[in-house]
Every structure is written in structure tokens, then in C-alpha cells.
Amino acid sequence: MLRPVDPALHARDATAADRAHVLTMMRAFYAEDRLVFDPVRVGAGLDTLLADPIHGVVLLLGDGGDDGYLVLTRGFSLEQGGAFALLDELYVAPQARGRGLGAQALALAAERSRAWGVAMLRLEVHHHNPRAKALYLRAGFVDGHRDMLTLTLDAPAAR
To answer: In sequence order, what are the beta bridge partners of 60?
Structure first.
């Protein structure tokens, strides 16, 4: 189960000034998790998130923000009873692993989600990442035995 956030955990909201640093960590995370890193697409999404907190937040972990990051976004689902939070990305840098930072990041994500007034925190994990899945299950997440499917749509016409 989730523990309370350790007061010694250093985390801060990323700003536009952190863009290059976040993209560097994202590139490392995507390579490790076998995700396609499209700098144009990912950069546009990051810019939107950094510019408008209505969509969510990027939190940098560690004293200098070098230990990793998490991305928490807002979603809506009738099944979930309305608004929910999505832990879209969680990355712990190799030099920061093995010290419980992942568990602390999950507790921080839950704390932020509660502050948003939502009662549900969701995430997805790749089948090829059993260590991450084990962390999430230990924290109290439940495997709904569903697969997420994706359809790429054409970009909407400029208005």
C-alpha cells in the first residue's frame, strides 16, 4: 500500500525552463521502455502541459530534478465516476534506483491527485515491464486485466 510522502522527498513542478532537461529524461525513459520517441509530437505535448496546468503537471524528482520525473494528467470517465488522474509517465533515473524513489513518487502522485479532488488514480504499464508492475501492485493498484488500444488520428485542421 502507498505510504505517506516522505517529507525528505524533493520534488518540484517543472516549468518551461526545464523543457530540455525533461525531454532528455523522456528520451532515456522511452528508450528503456521501448517507446517511440518522436521529439516533435512529445515536445508539443510537453509544451502544452507546461503552459497550461489545467491539463496536469510534470514533477521533477530529487534535489536538482535529476533523479527522475512523473507526469500526472487529468482525465474523465463515466465508469470512474467522473474526473480521475492519470499517472502518464514515471521515470526514475538509473543513479536513483533502489532507494524507494518509485514508491515515493507514487505516493506523491496520489497526494497531488487527492488535492485535485479526484478519487481515482490510474496508470498503464507495458507487459514487458514486470518490475514496474510489481511496484504498482505493491502500492495498491489493481490489475483490471484490460488492454489499452490506440488509434492514431489525423491532426485536426487549423482553425
So the answer is: 12, 69
